[in-house]
Structure formats: C-alpha cells, structure tokens
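Posting for a labmate who doesn't have an account.
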Amino acid sequence: MRLALFGGTFDQIHAGHLILAREARETLGLDEVIFIPAALSPHKLDTAPTPPSVRWAMLCAAVAGEPGFRADDLELHRPGPSFTFDTVMEYRRRYPQAELFYFIGQDHLAKLPTWHRIDELRQMVTLIVLGRAVENAAAHEVCISRRIDISATDIRNRVAKGLSIRYLVPEQVADLIQKHHLYLESPTSLGT
C-alpha cells in the first residue's frame, strides 16, 4: 500500500491543495492521500490559526466523496506543536507494511532543515515536493508541479477585502468561511 500524508495548517484548504494532491495520487500511483491538519504548526507559533474544529470541518467538506482522499484528525488531539515526525511514527505503527510518502509545499523547502528529527524523517518517508509553479526540481526526490496561483494567504486577503473566493476553494469550504465569519480582519494581521 502506498500512502501519502499531507500535513499542514489548512487554514483554509483550497483548490491548489486538492489539485496537487490529485495530480500526485495519479502520477505516483498512490492508494490514498491522507490530509492531516496541524493543531499548532511548529513554524507558525506566533500566529493563531482558525479554531481546529472549523479547520477540520472545512477539510472534511473539501475531501468528502473524493476517491482516494481522506482526512485524519490525529494531530488535533495531541498537545503542543504538531511535529511531522510524530505523525509519521504513528502511521508506521498503524501501517507497518505501507510505503509512506509525505507532501511538502515547495514554499516550505527552505525550512526543511529546521524540522524536528528531519534526518530520521527522511529515512521513513519519501518526500514529495508540491509546487504551484514550474521550477527546477532536480535536487528533490519527487516533485509534482502545476501552474497554480492559489494560496491560503491570498484567499484570506480576498475575504478580508470582501472579494469573491469562488473557484478558489470548494463551495462547502466557502460556506463554512462565511458561516464562521472567518478572515474578516485586516489582511496585514493574518498569518500565512
């Protein structure tokens, strides 16, 4: 079994995440992509994300009915920062025979050396770099790249300015953003 773990804050999940995950699943023959929202990102300790229950609801709405996609809230139930290493160890325990992959956004590559127990993590998973634009990926094991100019920061800024986010997020996610009055504060006060 080939399982890909897709961790992140997912504040909010958007079409770029879903398109790249689908592309990776099809290109690499992955059995399943598992979206895992972080309770608290170790690299975003200075910003307060949307409450976990709301991010979880948006994520579940986005992947509902999508073949080969599912969500797992295991990081939302652990205290402290959500370390990828701990999550991968749990998946090793659950699926000892599985081949594990881990998605990392191209925009997070520069911080990879600072990740908790990164050398051990690299031994346990194949990193799949997801890129929003075509760039040189020769230095990476696996790279999935599509020209997609969608980011969570841009979506939050559009909501704060009263602009449409139609087609940028699944309709159910847009409904939850509106229902919970998310991202209405000044765009400059929002984290990435």
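Reply:
Got it, the structure tokens are right above this. Confidence is low (pLDDT under 50) at residues 136-140, 188-192.
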